[in-house]
Amino acid sequence: MQNPIIELEELTKSYGSVKAVDHLSLTIGRGEIFGLLGPNGAGKTTAILMMLGLTEPDSGIARVCGINATSNPIAVKRKVGYMPDSVGFYDGMTAAENLMYIGRLNGITENELLPKIQATMETVGLADEMHKKTSVYSRGMKQRLGLADLLIREPEVVILDEPTLGIDPTGIKDFLTLIHRLSRQQGLTVLLSSHHLHQVQQVCDRVGIFVSGKLVVEGNMDTLSRNLFGEASFAVQVTFRNNPDELRGHTEALMKLPGVRNVTLQENGIDISCAENITPDIVRFLVHQGLDITSVHKKEFGLDEIYHRYFENNQKHISNGKSTGLFQRSFFRRNNV
Amino acid sequence: MVSPLVYFKDLFSGAITYKDKRNREAPNPFYVMVRKEAGDHIRSWRFIVMLLLVVLTFLGSLYVSLSHIGKAVSNIKDPDRVFVYLKLLTVSDGSLPTFHIFISFLGPLLGIALGFDAVNAEQQNGTLARLMAQPVYRDNFLLAKFFGALLVVSILFVSLALLMTGGGMIITGVLVEPVELLRILGFIVLSILYIGFWLSLSILLSVRFRNAATSALTAIGIWLFFTVFYRIIVNLVVSAMLPDSGMLRPEDMLSYNNLLLSLLRFAPSQLYTDAATTLLMPSVRSLGPLTMEQMSGAIPSPLPLKESLMIVWPQVTGLLAATALCFALSYYLFMRREIRS
């Protein structure tokens, strides 16, 4: 990968007998938005803490901006902004005072402090609420203030731990759009962890699915779905008014269409899975055959399907533990941007 | 030879240059944290309540001592009668304890109030995780918690002492002797150190316990144990060890007495009252029992400041050591802990 900014090599951390993070290797490039996905307790936060040097790995190396995070955490923290999952502020102080404190701790001089705070608060859309106490802030506002708190330090990398937790849907959308815009405008590298799949899907360039300490799949959405569903990553479901018996004769002809991988006959319809999106060709073909189509439905494999598909597989592995390595080999793909 | 005028060059523009320099230079993170902690304390209700308590006891004990000061300084048998200001702090008619006895009770409470939620409240609010992600050292954070509170306490006590000397001067019309001022300042430093011990103990508990209420209760429990029960327990234990007092030789009596005193000195309040008494009453020569041989030929007269300091030195060292121990323990517990919100 070109310009790696976060490099994790075989990072491992155990709590007692539980392996929170298990030989995690990951590379994130400059300017990328990477989504770390996984259920609660998968070890996402532990992995993030190790990137910041807030906890020590048992083995492996975490390098951020070329600096070893374990041995030199202060230098890493100068370049990385981290927003914990339940971000808190000093309730007795106003938002601006909270930011001032953080700004001073980061060595911003008194001259620059106020203009900078003003500008950042405008960026996150809190300029009007700047002089209110943070105790009256709503959850969504706090989250945006948390972002302002990162931006004021002008970091190279922003790490957000569950940034969408507890915000309403419109709030989430606004927040993620903001992150996306900032990343594109300022060239920020963003690493965000979440278990909200749809939201992550909207903004992330690349995602990694992280389950019980292991990074199971990694790549952009296309690669992920291709990896998991093999060649047949598109599915079209067509229903007819015709008698199912009439359809039987057409299945073989359908199989001959370029790109079609599999055709299954349903009660009053056909399921076709194909490597590319050839829905128009299928419909044209069926109409030419004189069939009465009542509906055509193209199934999309979102992160949700990917996620569930993975879990279905994972359940099997738990029952026969030996195949885990095999599974990993077949789904573990690197070097896609 | 440089013209002397050069020395005056920046004399008047100095203030501006300083401010400008301050604005251009980034402040030290430790200083920023101490400033924030001190500011938080000053604005907090609990400090205002404690401040009122301390000021009230100070005024009360001062009132009692002022009404008896005339009798005390004209008492010819008392070698300390020349020290009017020390008398102001130590004279009492028994209706109200003197100021240093009050502080031996209230000081711990003040220290505990300022420190019991230093670390765990930040963790509960989720501010600790955010703060630890800033480029600051963890030890700076603990140290700032300690110094911020101690700074506020120091300012409070120094102002009280200065108020007392100033007020005393107006009321009595007697000028303060340098030795008296030094002794009073010594007493203030000792009081700050004593409160510092309780502060570092409560910070230790706030690192150890996740819940602020638990750490507050534990700290108050320790305080109650030392002020109320410790003396009783030590007396019980020593009297159980003591053979029939009629059979005892004087040397044995002395050794048992010393044992009792040494055990009592494990209580920080005992160390503090011993040291405070010695500093405020120059005629105190020893904190343990003295035999007749040691006393023979001694003229009851005030000791010089240096000698008094020599007597209290073990006490001061003990308090310092206890403070450092608590602090070292909090470091040990905090430095490598994983901060999660």
How is the topology of this model organized?
The complex is a heterodimer of chains A (337) and B (341).
Chain A (H helix, E strand, L loop, with lengths): L3 E12 L2 E12 L3 E5 L6 H8 L7 E6 L2 E2 L4 H7 E4 L11 H11 L4 H14 L15 H13 L5 E5 L7 H18 L2 E6 L2 H7 L2 E6 L2 E6 L1 H9 L4 E7 L3 H5 L2 H5 L4 E6 L3 E6 L4 H10 L4 E7 L3 H17 L4 H8 L6
Parallel strand pairs in A: 3-8, 3-9, 6-7, 7-8
Antiparallel strand pairs in A: 1-2, 1-4, 4-5, 9-10, 11-13, 11-14, 12-13
Helix pairs in contact in A: 3-4, 4-5, 6-7, 8-12
Chain B lengths: L13 H11 L4 H15 L1 H29 L10 H7 L8 H17 L4 H6 L1 H6 L5 H35 L5 H31 L3 H30 L8 H15 L3 H13 L11 H4 L9 H31 L6
Helix pairs in contact in B: 2-8, 3-4, 3-5, 5-8, 5-9, 5-10, 5-12, 8-9, 9-10, 9-12, 9-14, 10-11, 12-14
How would you concisely characterize the structure shown here?
The complex is a heterodimer of chains A (337) and B (341). With 337 residues, chain A is α/β, with parallel strands linked by helices.
Tell me what you see in this structure:
The complex is a heterodimer of chains A (337) and B (341). Chain A folds into 2 domains: 4-226, P-loop containing nucleotide triphosphate hydrolases (Rossmann fold, 3-Layer(aba) Sandwich), CATH 3.40.50.300; 234-299, 2-Layer Sandwich (Alpha-Beta Plaits). In chain A, 39% of the residues lie in helices and 27% in strands. Chain A has helices at 44-51, 73-79, 95-105, 110-123, 139-151, 169-186, 197-203, 221-229, 244-248, 251-255, 279-288, 303-319, 324-331; strands at 4-15, 18-29, 33-37, 59-64, 67-68, 80-83, 157-161, 189-194, 206-211, 214-219, 234-240, 260-265, 269-274, 293-299. A 6-stranded mixed beta sheet of chain A has the order 6-7-8-3-9-10, with helices on both faces. Chain A has a 4-stranded antiparallel beta sheet with strand order 2-1-4-5, with helices on one face. A 4-stranded antiparallel beta sheet of chain A has the order 12-13-11-14. In chain B, helix 2 crosses helix 8, helix 5 runs antiparallel to helix 8 and helix 8 (138-172) runs antiparallel to helix 9. The model of chain B has no long low-confidence stretch (mean pLDDT 85). With 341 residues, chain B is mostly helical. Chain B contains 14 helices and no strands. Chain B starts with 13 loop residues before the first helix and ends in a 6-residue tail after the last helix. Chain B has a domain at 26-224 and 323-335. Chain B has helices at residues 14-24, 29-43, 45-73, 84-90, 99-115, 120-125, 127-132, 138-172, 178-208, 212-241, 250-264, 268-280, 292-295, 305-335. The chains are: A alpha/beta (337), B mainly alpha (341). Chains A and B meet through helix 2, strand 6 and helix 3 of A and helix 1, helix 2 and helix 7 of B.
